[in-house]
UniProtKB/TrEMBL annotation:
Entry superkingdom: Bacteria
InterPro entries linked: Cellulose_synthase_operon_BcsQ, P-loop_NTPase, ParA/MinD_ATPase, Rv3660c, Rv3660c_N
One Pfam family of this chain: CBP_BcsQ
Gene this chain is encoded by: ssd
Ranges for domain Rv3660c-like CheY-like N-terminal: 7-114
Name of the molecule in the record: Septum site-determining protein Ssd
């Protein structure tokens, strides 16, 4: 595999670039002169030109290409953009302020997007509406279609999706192991660290003290999921915190599970107001009750993603530690299959 190319004679700058590349999990090819860079110029997925070498490189007339960056350790250099244009770079990055951007650039070069999976969020209109069960069921159904699926538990007070799936003892990282993460996470490393069952990877909460998920940690996990998985399903808390807002901002669709009774609709209306602060693609999933489905959706002014009739023996299966039963004739199975078919990005 070709490596990013760095062209510089500045040893201090090179030390910085090697450190930043290591943070991104990237190895570099280094050229100290334009002639040394020539064999790598067209092959390298990314070229980083030190400010010290830009004019010398430009004088050799390198062929135009994309993904060329000019990097300097001299913030505010008025001549930097002239050198950027001369060498055919796309932008100027000033260190140390642009280190995070440079980490992202190196990481993209060695871990290109391979999946581009959509994010689907699931929220409950009120407590006990069944949002967690639906989120787990969607993820299970997708994984059984051989879609690489990441199921993210974003509800610290939900009891844990690992328990709902009957995988409480599964080995692997939980949120407490990731809450300090900032910046980019390698998608393959994330999958290797988390409990994984065939095509389903799970990020859940551990037992013990509840920790709030920092927005930066959620952002890093979701972006890794979108690069490395076919589908990302997020089980949201009823209180829309900063981490939930990160998921909603990236959601291709958000399902609001509403119980078909007066209290359920009123509670869902309050939840909906918070969801609409962060996303627009919201659909109602109506649990059977005393109100007709169309009355519920019209009251909330939401399109319907479908209804969910009561499913006999679902509660008993979950209490035994079994995952939700999703046979083709079960209401949950039919709903999940239909909804996934409506997501063109996740079809297989």
């Amino acid at each position: 595999m070709d490596r990013p190319l760095v062209i510089t004679e500045d040893h201090d700058l090179l030390d910085d670039l090697l450190r930043v590349a290591a943070a991104a999990g990237a190895e570099l090819d280094v050229a100290h002169a334009p002639t040394h860079a020539r064999p790598y110029w067209n092959r390298a997925p990314l070229v980083v030109v030190g400010g010290d070498m830009a004019d010398t490189l430009a004088a050799t007339g390198p062929p135009p290409r994309d993904r060329v960056l000019l990097v300097t350790r001299a913030p505010g250099d008025p001549d930097a953009w002239r050198r950027c244009v001369a060498v055919g770079a796309q932008t100027v990055l000033e260190l140390p302020s642009a280190e995070r951007r440079l980490v992202e650039e190196f990481a993209d070069a060695v871990e290109p997007v391979s999946r581009a999976g959509p994010v689907v969020c699931v929220a409950g209109g009120r407590g006990g509406a069944g949002a967690s069960v639906l989120a787990a069921s969607l993820a299970l159904t997708a994984s059984r279609r051989r879609l690489r699926t990441l199921l993210v538990d974003a509800d610290p007070l939900g009891g844990g999706l690992d328990l709902l799936l009957g995988q409480e003892e599964a080995k692997g990282a939980r949120w407490p192991d990731l809450v300090a993460r900032e910046g980019r996470i390698n998608a393959a490393a994330l999958q290797a660290a988390l409990p994984t069952f065939a095509e389903l990877t799970l990020l859940s909460f551990g037992r013990g003290e509840v920790e709030t998920i920092p927005a930066e940690a959620m952002r890093s996990v979701l972006e890794a999921g979108m690069r490395g998985f076919d589908l990302v399903v997020v089980d949201l808390p009823r209180h829309c915190d900063h981490a939930a807002a990160q998921a909603l901002a990236r959601a291709a669709a958000t399902l609001l599970v509403v119980t078909a009774d007066v209290r359920g609709v009123l509670a869902a209306a309050q939840a909906l107001a918070r969801l609409r602060e962060h996303t627009t693609e919201i659909r109602a999933v109506v649990r059977s009750g005393v109100l007709d489905d169309d009355v519920v959706t019209s009251s909330l002014r939401l399109p319907s993603a479908g209804g969910l009739p009561d499913q006999p023996r679902l509660t008993a299966a979950l209490n035994r530690g079994d995952p939700p039963p999703l046979g083709g004739r079960t209401p949950l199975g039919r709903f999940c299959a239909s909804f996934l078919n409506s997501l063109p990005e996740a079809e297989r």
